[in-house]
Amino acid sequence: MNESINELRVSRAASGAYPTISDALAATDQLYPDAEQAVTIHIDPGEYRERVEIHRPHVTLAGETADSVRIVGSLGAKMPSEDGSGVDGTLGTFRTYTVLVDADDVRLENLTIVNDAGDGREVGQAIALYADGDRLVVDACCITGRQDTLFLGPLPPREVKPGGFIGPKQFAPRRVGRQYFRRCRIEGDVDFIFGGACAYFEGCEIRSLNRNMDVNGYVTAASTPEGEPYGFVFHGCSFTAAQDVAPDSVYLGRPWREWAQTVLIDCWLGQHIKREGWWDWAKPAAHERAHYAGASLHGPASDAENWVPWAHELDATATTRYAREQVLSGADGWDPEGGPGDAAETDSLSDNGRTVHIDTYYEDELAFRERLKREGRSAAFKGTTPEDFEAWQIATRVRLFDLLGLSIMDRVSIEARELDRVQIAGGIVRTHAMLQVERDVWMPFYLLEPQSPKLDARGRKCCYVCPHGHQGAGAASVAGVTGVPAVDDAVRKFNYDYGLRLARMGYVTVCPDARGWGYRRDWKGQGDDENSFLRGTCLNQARMAEPLGLTVAGLNAWDNMRLIDYLEARGDIAMDDLGCFGFSGGGYMTLYLAALDPRVCKAFVSGYLYGVDDSLLHLNGNCSCNYTPGLWRLLDMGDIASLIAPRPLLVQSCEEDHLNGSRGLKNVDEQLKIVRDAYKLLGRRDALRHEVCPGGHHLGVTHLVEDIEWLDSHVAKCDRA
User: Fold this and answer.
1) Residue 97 is inside which H or E element, if any?
2) How much is the pTM?
3) For FRET with 672, which of 210, 387, 426, 490 sits at 20 to 30 Å CA-CA?
């Protein structure tokens, strides 16, 4: 295959782009007649009501985020066909698809694919995605429908009823393809994952919808051909349901054909799952021929001992057969991720199946209370005359450079403790650890180390500090933790897993939990509900810190500086190439850290550089860590960013980001002018770059590799003075 990648864009508004996905696919064949050429089609945010067919190999359809790009169809099996063909002149199941993949080596990412025809009892089966190809990858997508949402070809060898297979693959050879679904949400009610493919689902949410029936639905209906070693394998997935789905009402599966295979490993099963697990669909032969099995199951319906006697509970030895690299390898050794599968977190999911119950929180309240006892009123005026007071004023004004409170922090010796270590996809080792950052305060963080890291000329590892933003459960999203649906949603919505993305590029990445987030939530914000889990307790932190002369922004900057101290002490990190990368709230922490600490040699600030008047004061709904007492009297964001000059700085903004304020990018441009003037003055105009992405608040990843290469190319040796 030709390794060159060719790119097209789909947008309703952008000049030079294709208005529909189908137009872009048609243009692909004209522009690149060699079908072995890889083509990526980038899709701008929007709803695309069209029928998409992919008949060319090596095609990638990539949206900005799954939430922002929707491909929608509305065909149901009971609807009449245009030419009168089909059983009783109806479409039948296999002509209802919204998206058809009829080629090998296709990739779908950051998309929502919908068939909204409606209830199957009224409209019949309604396929959202029809997948019939080998080496298919579907990453961070939502696939939504009701009955028969996701079809994984091939079709069975023979129809039960004549005309039942009318569709694009009716007469095609029955070839079993390998298909990989990662971090997807797939929802429906009856047989909503069905077909004969070898399909591996990793870190996916499998969500059942309500039909208000005693038997509310069936998740799978495999038709694995006789003699095939694998059918459907679910690893680290959570089987959840809409709130109105009755307990004990949904079967895990039934055999569309009697050789059906469906295996669940490390999965979480909600209370909606029927305790017997499986139904034979009135096919007694399936008792001997079908293979339904599970191991390491969790959740309310996890007890496989209650399953029907012809289903199996696997032991630890048997589960090794169902590792991703085993199931999908085939004759060509294909592994879409490389190395062992992601370490699933499903064993700790809460009763809702979408959040994690955290047993131990690393809180700061005790440290704050002890600090008040030790240091309360330490800077109060102690003089007796007007002259004394004037001198105190001058001294206090000199100290305003330390507005964030960093000068009164407690420096302690570097001590890091490992909490957990797992190997994830691609040979990356993910370590969960904590670092002591001051007296009585520990900071949990994830450390991602690639198997073959990027090295500098001295053989030291290139590294990025990757602080997280808000609404993503802290560092878990940035570090790419999978199998927690609430975290997965944040990743799909914002492209939050940038620490993992950089690790896959070869960089060591460090992803810390900020104060009041993730494992550091204050007791006032603990809980398993999604609102508590995804959000933080910044306001509580501010209320405790500010009367002590501290600020949340300063505490987070301090913690990240201590993290740099830790990296420097390791001795294997290329400190003259150290980068910081953050989106949204992570962008604010990147901005402050790079401005305060010259050891940061390059910075990527996404979704956080705008005038405070429009974006913080006027909107007035941002996290309290954005509001430092007295700061706005002294500096705007452009001034803070100017402190980074002349080190390389890449600023990324989105056209429709609500945080830009009512004036949009004009607000951003006013601050960037301040920064540009600083870089121009220093003769380093080339070391500042502004990238604008389509859509709302999210991290743009379309040009991420190019962006990182640009930062690398502009790094000069940092002045440590």
Assistant:
1) none
2) 0.87
3) 490
Specify whether 648 is located in the same domain as 559.
yes
Question: What averages of pLDDT result for each successive group of 10 residues across the chain (721 residues)?
Answer: 74 94 96 95 98 98 96 98 92 98 98 98 98 97 98 94 93 96 97 98 97 96 97 97 95 98 97 97 96 96 95 91 94 86 81 87 78 57 57 43 85 94 93 95 97 95 96 92 91 95 97 94 83 84 90 94 97 97 96 90 96 82 82 81 91 95 93 90 92 96 96 68 27
Q: How is the beta sheet containing 579-583 ordered, strand by strand?
A: 416-424, 428-438, 441-449, 508-512, 463-465, 579-583, 602-606, 649-654, 688-693
Cα–Cα distance for residue pair 286/441, rounded to 1 Å: 58
DSSP per position, 134-169 = SSEEEES-EEE-SSS-EEESPPPSS-SSTTTT-STT
Which helix (H) or strand (E) is 682 found in, with range?
none
Backbone angles phi, psi at 492, to 5 degrees: -65, -35
Give CA 646 to chain center in angstroms: 32
CA 557, 563, 569, 573 torsion: positive or negative?
negative
> Are 572 and 692 members of one domain?
yes
Cα 444 to Cα 437: distance, rounded to the nearest angstrom: 10
Three-state SS for 676? helix
Q: Which two tokens stand for residue 681?
A: 């003055």
What are the residue ranges of helices labelled H in 404-446?
none
Residue 674 and residue 542 share a domain: yes
CA-CA distance, 588 to 606, in Å (whole number)? 9
List Cα–Cα distances, 562 to 413, 435, 445, 503, 576, in angstroms. Answer: 10, 8, 12, 21, 17
DSSP code string of 504-565:
HTT-EEEEEPPTTSGGG--GGG--SSHHHHHS--HHHHHHHHGGGT--HHHHHHHHHHHHHH
**With contact defined as beta carbons under 8 Å apart, do 342 and 424 qualify?**
yes
Which domain CATH number covers 245? 2.160.20.10
Q: Cα 470 vs. chain centroid, distance in angstroms? A: 13
Q: Parallel, antiparallel, or unpaired: how do β-strands 38-43 and 5-10 relate?
A: parallel
Token pair of 424 as six digits: 């994830």
Q: Which helix (H) or strand (E) holds 604?
A: strand 602-606
Residues 511 and 400 in one domain: yes
Structural domain span for residue 472:
384-713
* Secondary structure class of 21 (helix, strand, coil): helix
d(CA 522, CA 363): 6
Say which residues have a Cβ less than 8 Å from residue 384's Cβ, sequence separation at least 6: none
- Cis amide linkage into residue 255, ω under 30° from 0: no
**CA distances (Å), 539 to each of 169, 325, 524, 625, 675, in order?**
57, 45, 10, 8, 30
Helices 552-570 and 538-545, axial angle in degrees (round to 10): 100
* Structural domain contains residue 482: yes
Give the chain's domain count: 2
Same domain as 640, residue 539? yes
439 CB-near residues (< 8 Å, 6+ apart): 367, 370, 410, 412
Q: Does residue 267 sit within a domain?
A: yes
Q: Looking at the domain assignment, is residue 406 inside a domain? A: yes
